[in-house]
Write a structure and sequence with these properties.
The protein is an alpha/beta fold and 260 residues long. The chain has a single domain, classed as 2-enoyl-CoA Hydratase, Chain A, domain 1. The strands form two sheets. Strands 1-2-3-4-6-9 form a six-stranded mixed β-sheet, sandwiched between helices. A hairpin with a 2-residue loop joins strand 1 and strand 2. Helix 2 crosses helix 12 and helix 4 runs parallel beside helix 5.
């Protein structure tokens, strides 16, 4: 959208809406990631913010990392781990450490790092057309952005492995049945229903909800920071393989990858 920021924030009655709105399915480039980090920093500092809603535009929640940026650094000595340490890892940790409820409102695709960001949120409401794609395998990479921890925790290791290896989408209804999302709604009602849910939460005991989130982190994700760091080491290995080169090339050429 012309003259419009890729990440925009608006506060209404204690509900901060962080909207992703970048052409090409909200694929993250460095500018967009840093803008999202700033939005969550501001949310943590702002005493008026009681609940956060993270939502994509009408096209998608987020297709993950912009593949064009990956292509630019392919074959170089740039470390994906270093990139993750500066971009997605801090964002994931910000979402989990924010002692306020965070609702992901998901329409269209949530893939790759976009999936990790959605799963890092406390609650998820999805449009009936939403689909969840691990995505990394399609370009010859392993999961990062916390997907290797969040996805098995939410749907079980067997299912997580199946959809990571096959790269097939988890459709909204299945995601709801498995507990990957809390609520479903028609696509045209997503923003309205997410806002209504957030407004209801904003009337609740904000401090104790934050403490409950801290307890959940301790009980379920105590090793999150270590997992994010290890994903970076794994991704550095994957990024040097011929499979990664072929996966990116196939994606850009809009053809099936030939992993041999």
């Amino acid at each position: 959208m012309e003259n419009q920021a890729a990440v925009a924030s608006s506060l209404n009655n204690g509900v901060l809406t962080i909207a992703l709105n970048r052409p090409r399915a909200n694929a993250f480039n460095l500018e967009m990631i840093l803008a999202a980090q700033k939005a969550f920093r501001d949310a943590a500092r702002d005493t008026q913010t009681r609940v956060v809603v993270l939502i994509g535009n009408e096209t998608a929640f987020s297709a993950g990392q912009d593949i064009g940026e990956i292509q630019k650094v392919q074959g170089s000595d740039i470390s994906i781990r270093k990139h993750l340490l500066e971009t997605y890892n801090p964002l994931i940790l910000q979402i989990r450490r924010l002692e306020k409820p965070v609702i992901a409102a998901i329409n269209g695709v949530a893939a790759g790092a976009g999936l990790g960001i959605a799963l890092a949120c406390d609650l998820r409401i999805a449009a009936e057309n939403a689909r969840f794609v691990v995505g990394f395998g399609g370009i010859g990479l392993a999961p990062d952005s916390g997907v290797s921890l969040f996805l098995p925790a939410l749907i079980g290791l067997g299912r997580a492995a199946e959809f990571t290896f096959s790269n097939q989408p988890i459709l909204a209804e299945q995601a709801h049945q498995w507990g990957l999302v809390n609520k479903l709604c028609p696509a045209q009602e997503l923003q309205q229903q997410a806002a209504a849910w957030a407004a209801q939460l904003a009337l609740g005991p904000a401090k104790t909800m934050g403490l409950a989130k801290r307890a959940f982190n301790k009980a379920v994700y105590p090793n999150l920071e270590d997992v994010l760091d290890y994903e970076g080491y794994i991704q550095d290995i994957a990024s040097k393989t011929a499979e990664h080169v072929e996966g990116v090339q196939a994606f850009l050429e809009k053809r099936p990858a030939n992993f041999k």
